[in-house]
Design brief:
The protein is an all-alpha fold. The chain contains two helices and no strands.
């Protein structure tokens, strides 16, 4: 089963914090983990931006504002 939820992302990020907090790492290992953390952070930011876009679209298509027919909802926000 893929790990593709925001909850999974949260768990990955906290796991990375735990790896960075390992006092037994060498300087070289720590530098590698920092690079890994930077890459994870960059990707996480994009995932969160995408989730915010989907949330905004869902609000728009929910009919709460009354200006878009929910039946025209894009597939990306259906499930």
């Amino acid at each position: 089963m893929p790990n593709n939820t925001l909850n999974d992302l949260n768990n990955f990020l906290f796991g990375q914090l735990e790896r960075l907090d390992n006092p037994e790492m060498t300087q070289e290992e720590l530098e590698a983990e920092i690079k890994r953390s930077e890459a994870m952070t960059d990707i996480a930011e994009q995932v969160i931006k995408n989730a915010n876009t989907v949330l905004a679209a869902e609000k728009m298509y929910s009919g709460k504002d009354g200006w878009v027919d929910p039946k025209r909802r894009p597939k990306m926000i259906e499930g």
